[in-house]
Amino acid sequence: MNDSMRRAAAILLVILGGAALWWAGSGAAASASANDAMVATIAAARERAAANDPRLKGASRFEEGGWIYLHLEGDPGAMGYQHGYLLAPEIEDAFAAVSAGMMHSTERDWEFFRKAAHEMLWPKIDVEYQQELRGIVEGLRARTGSNLDVDDLVAFNAFEELPDYYVPWLNKQQKMAEAPELKSPGNCSAFVATGSWTKDGLIVMAHNNWTSYRNGERWRIVFDIAPKNGYRILMDGFPGVIASDDDFGINSDGLMVTETTITQFEGWDPNGKAEFVRARKALQYAGSIDEYKEIMLEGNNGGYANDWLLGDRKTGEIAQLELGLKAHKLWRTKDGVLAGSNWARDPQVLKEDAPQFDPINKESSPNARRARWDELLKENKGKIDVVLAEKMLGDHSDTAQKKEEANERTLCGHVDGSPRGVKEWEWQPYYPGGAVQGKATDAKMAKEMRIMARMGHPCGGDFLAKPFLAAHPEYAWQEPYLRDMKAGPWTEFRSGQAPKE
Length: 501
Ligand SMILES: [Zn+2]
Description:
By secondary structure, the chain is of the alpha+beta class. It has helices spanning 3-25, 31-51, 76-86, 88-106, 110-121, 127-144, 150-157, 162-173, 213-216, 275-285, 289-297, 347-353, 365-379, 386-393, 443-447, 465-471, and strands at 60-64, 67-74, 189-194, 204-212, 221-227, 233-237, 248-251, 255-261, 306-312, 317-323, 328-333, 336-340, 397-398, 403-404, 433-442, 450-455, 491-494.
């Protein structure tokens, strides 16, 4: 027991004693409200004691433009405690929404995911991230008295990789009859450009995050991380998750990182290291494209397999790391543009890791967006900057129909408006998902650790849950978790930022 815990325990004893005396003197009718009052008093005392914890020193949080900015600093355990404490209500809320989705799609109970986290993932997590994850649980419990434990948190951190990579692999291994159809997700539209493609000849990077609106509306954290070891990080992220996970981030040694996932990826290595751990580690410790590749490959488990789009502002070089499980490939250039919209391009990766994907069909979301990136980036060669990148992330040109219409094939995705859905990801017609936020930065901004970010559809459109659910009762199961997703303004965030007075 440390000092702060002793202090908290002492406060609790005093309160409990007082409540018991008062209880003895009151009538039975008052017992329910007395009990409520006691619970509230204990909770308040716990929060006061937790707020005095020395691990919170230096950490802070504020809200702007629809985002929550969170500054974490120190050793891994302290950063975890700060994260858990300062985002406690958001973590509990996000955990409820995410775990419901994981159980719904896989038809597995939560105990299944806890077991996978405990037995398969936890032993391979680096010690510093184990400490950080434990810290999150401690901070969360100190603030709200949450029942979540570290197995819950690890399963939750792996929400992109357990349900859509591990479970389909396991179903196949176990030759499960009547297993639910599960497909790896197709998250995001992104590009990184450099040299003669950009206005100033330096790197420009932009990304919008595609996911369910249920999860996406909660993907509203800007993490400013000053770790004891490794580089300073500025990234967007999800409450309670230690990696950016969608992904968009920069580090103080000059690395700029984003990605889009590989559609219809298949494969999993149960002996590998969780993707969320490798992705966080690479952003924290890689100072070059080669180091990034090395960290991502070490223990590659095939989870959340991405086309990583990278920039090194020190050299002006950009790269694409197509990270399959059986195959991978790296392209790099100091004069070019690399775009992603959830399609693998290396023949070997396609053959071995995404054999079902059809790279020809112009009607599919990944291929239609690929064609649009080609057009849009070529049209704007030599003019690309952050302002233009923000506009591109909100683009609604559908190359398959050759018209303007926000749908599942546009860079700014609105699948809730599409009678087709996205069959490659098992997104049924009118699936409430699409582009949920956007970010952009360039080499100059990255040097000053600055990014632009917009919450909600990057085009500025709003999603309203109530009319949607009324029109689409097939998604009624999401009702407890599906909220309005209103677009905020493009907002600048920087490392070490203080809230506006
Ligand atoms: Zn849009």
